[in-house]
Amino acid sequence: MTTHTPEQPDDAALERLRAADPAAGLDPDTEALEAAVRTRVPEAFAGATATPGAPASPPADTGVPSGAPVDELAERRARRRRRAPLQVAAAVAGVLVVGAGGYALGAGAVGASPAGDTSELTARAPIQLGTADAPAAADGAGAESFAGDARSAADVAYPGYWGGRTVFHQDGLPTEGASASAWAYDAAGVFAPETLLRVADALGVDGEVREDYGSLSAGSADWTGPTVSLQPDGLASVSFNDPTKDPWGCVVVSPAPADGDGGGESVEPGVCEEADHGAPPSGADAVEQLRDVLATLGLDPAGYEVVADEQAPDVEAPRATTVTAHEVVDGQRTGTQWSATFSGAGLASLYGALAPRVEIGTYDVVSPAEAVERLGDPRFGGGGMIAWARESTLEQMAVEPEEPTVPPTLGEGARFAWPVTDVTITDARLGLAVQYQPDGAAVLLPAYELSDAEGNAWSVVAVVDEQLDFAPAG
């Protein structure tokens, strides 16, 4: 048993979703994933172990004359069966990634580094509560809502995925409570036209401030030039885009010249010519550039762990470099961040949380043992499983699907299946999690990450009942 104490373009909703995505722009390390899957699920690669570039083996003798009619339906079924292990392997790879560190893509554990060296990453992964979905995200505008629903479902169904239930116990965890600091994000203090003008000036955006469906915007109104917006959400999210530096943007040439004589015009629509912005900055340079941008916006770069995406090895001439600055408090990423994309022409896009974090006091927290009890308390059911690592889970997922069959009819007097899984929590980490109040205000409050001996993890709020308001929302 061990315990640990802590020492966000024109569619604003879409951009808030992108800004909240902890894995935005990150590419999985496919070689590492494949190696892990080969180790755990070798049968998934059976018959597919030939060395790349080596001549293919001759086809096996199936016993069917080459001129015999082919049963196309049977062949399609066979192809499905042959594909299944790799499809399952892909799902297992995702579990391996998550089990390795909360959500490894968002934590920078796979395919990302500050300057090409993942050994420099020191902050622990953020704790995410299932209740972290902001009210503004009810229409799909926030990534937390999606993740929260998925975690809640996993908690109810773990580990049989559908129809199972879980009972939690603890083994050797402390029974004494403690205290921890909490913070509020002061969006109300910065959501103002003056703030947007300051941000616009820092990012080189001209124009007057205008209101767009509650948000504040400045810059090009037709999206042909740089634009920046400030959202009225709990994090005062900023969204910046410069289409003139977009690494994937293009200019439509219309009408296109006709083939042949070069004089007339073609009736075909024009082609889209992509702009050549040159090579984007290296990961290390992009990291420093984002640090400079944060400082220009009045933020302290030292309060962030800045991570550059690792370029895919098969991309000879990448068009962009994406960098993420993760907010860090007491050695842990909070889950709020800034994400920037640089092309050869400079900063093409930027999304992030501008609201400053203000301390709101010290709160009493329940003991790790009581936190485990909360996993079975309906009042805290919005939390849930956040990482899989159980070997049996991998084995269940790795089973090749069989042809569907009709289930047997239940007999008279038979007992009804009501699967229940018993989980013993052996490890507790007290950290912090972003949580949204019913009115949309964002706070950073104490939360536990609870793990079993095999590395599966759940999360739950840590603040004592007396300091929680259980009144119904609305």
Automatic annotation (TrEMBL):
Classification lineage: Bacteria, Bacillati, Actinomycetota, Actinomycetes, Micrococcales
TM region positions: 86-105
Ranges of Low complexity composition bias in the record: 46-63
Protein name in UniProt: Uncharacterized protein
UniProt KW keywords: Membrane, Transmembrane, Transmembrane helix
Organism name: Cellulosimicrobium composti
Top-level division of the source organism's lineage: Bacteria
Region span, Disordered: 1-29, 46-71
